[in-house]
Amino acid sequence: MRKKRATPSDPSPPSPVVGQCGLCERQVQQTSRHHLVPREEGGRYGPVVELCQPCHSTVHLLLDNKELARHYNTVERLREAEELQKYLHWVRRSRVERISNRRARR
Question: Is residue 5 a part of any domain in this protein?
Fold first, then answer.
């Protein structure tokens, strides 16, 4: 008995939506916990927000932990960060779910 081969015209099943990113506010498949005050700056038990992987990666690429602790320790302040405006404009219009880890590029 032959198995039916998938053809390009077969519709792919819809991806399950798990949650909403606290920064870009998109519905995404997976989120991770971001400490608003980084753990190494004393925020181990402080407030957290769920971020999609692209946002979480970009936050840590563009802002260091001292800046996050001092100036961007709430979601509202993080959304208003000048360094993130161009990225947020782009990601809100895209369907990207993953961005390769760019932390090593510093």
Answer: no
